[in-house]
């Protein structure tokens, strides 16, 4: 087993677990870190999907009772809202895959540099605090109109772009359509389940079309990253909910401005060194 590679994947998994839930873009951080750690561009996309699958497990465990209640009580309106909210990201993901744009979007450092900047402005201007009266009058998730679920889904589709935070975009959209704070996060991560699952299906299809390229060492490394991302992600999700209730998510904008400048510098440096 390559212990250095295991260490590198562990670093990526920790960042994935943190950045998937805090509004700083896990895909953007993974793309930058994979460049710094020397991962081959062709391995970036599938490794990202494996690590996202770890945080998917964290979501399922954290919201298990919510999912169970939705199924047992047959909350068909909410199930339909999740389906409708998933459609934009599904169409965008398939379109990017079929067009071959994934080889550009998920490998160029310029993309997350711009995405980090976009997310910074999003947090500054879209996640302003609510008064207690405004929060009390907000809609619970069970009453979300399907049109508003679609708008949140469009925000999730935009966040396929590395550097644009999926949690930040969907929570901001949820606040704008007047969902309660906790329900903004809940719906955001309910939408993540089919979105990440769909991405896994697309990548696994390509991976297993050439099974001879997969070694037992690859599987062990991927499993290690998956577990680390799941554990760290679970606790990061708890942290996010506390920060959201305090209305402090916009403070991450200043970190993202720095990340954007740093990533842009890496991109320029990579062009100069070619």
Account of the protein in words:
The longest helix has 30 residues. With 274 residues, the protein is mainly alpha-helical. Helices cover 77% and strands 0% of the residues. The model has no long low-confidence stretch (mean pLDDT 88). The protein has one domain.
Gross morphology is globular
* Main beta sheet: none
From the N-terminal CA to the C-terminal CA, the straight-line distance is 31 Å
Count of DSSP-assigned helices: 13
Please tell me the total number of domains.
1
Write the layout of secondary structure elements.
Layout: H1 3-19, H2 26-36, H3 41-62, H4 64-72, H5 76-99, H6 102-105, H7 110-126, H8 132-136, H9 146-158, H10 166-176, H11 181-207, H12 216-245, H13 252-272
Helix pairs in contact: 1-2, 1-3, 1-12, 2-3, 2-7, 3-11, 3-12, 5-9, 5-11, 7-10, 7-13, 9-10, 10-11
Spell out the key features of this protein.
mainly alpha; 274 residues
Summed up, what is this model?
With 274 residues, the protein is mainly alpha-helical.
């Amino acid at each position: 087993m390559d212990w250095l590679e295991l260490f590198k994947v562990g670093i990526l998994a920790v960042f994935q677990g943190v950045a998937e839930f805090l509004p700083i873009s896990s895909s953007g951080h993974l793309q930058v870190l994979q460049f710094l750690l020397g991962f081959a561009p062709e391995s970036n996309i599938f490794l990202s999907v494996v690590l996202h699958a770890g945080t998917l497990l964290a979501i399922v465990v954290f919201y298990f009772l919510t999912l169970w209640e939705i199924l047992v009580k047959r909350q068909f309106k909410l199930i339909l809202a999740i389906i409708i909210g998933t459609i934009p990201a599904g169409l965008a993901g398939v379109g990017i895959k079929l067009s071959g744009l994934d080889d550009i979007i998920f490998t160029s450092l310029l993309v997350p540099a711009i995405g980090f900047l976009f997310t910074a402005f999003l947090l500054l201007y879209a996640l302003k605090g609510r008064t207690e009266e405004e929060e009390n009058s907000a809609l619970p998730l069970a009453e979300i109109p399907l049109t508003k679920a679609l708008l949140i889904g469009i925000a999730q589709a935009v966040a396929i772009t590395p550097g644009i935070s999926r949690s930040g975009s969907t929570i901001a959209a949820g606040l704008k359509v007047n969902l309660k704070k906790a329900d903004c996060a809940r719906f955001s991560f309910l939408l993540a389940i089919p979105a990440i699952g769909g991405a896994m299906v697309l990548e696994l299809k390509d991976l297993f079309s050439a099974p001879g390229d997969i070694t037992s060492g690859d599987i062990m490394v991927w499993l290690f990253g998956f577990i680390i991302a799941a554990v760290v992600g679970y606790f990061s999700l708890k942290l996010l909910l506390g920060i959201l209730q305090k209305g402090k998510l916009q403070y991450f904008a200043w970190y993202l401005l720095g990340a954007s400048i740093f990533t842009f510098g890496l991109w320029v440096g990579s062009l100069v060194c070619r």
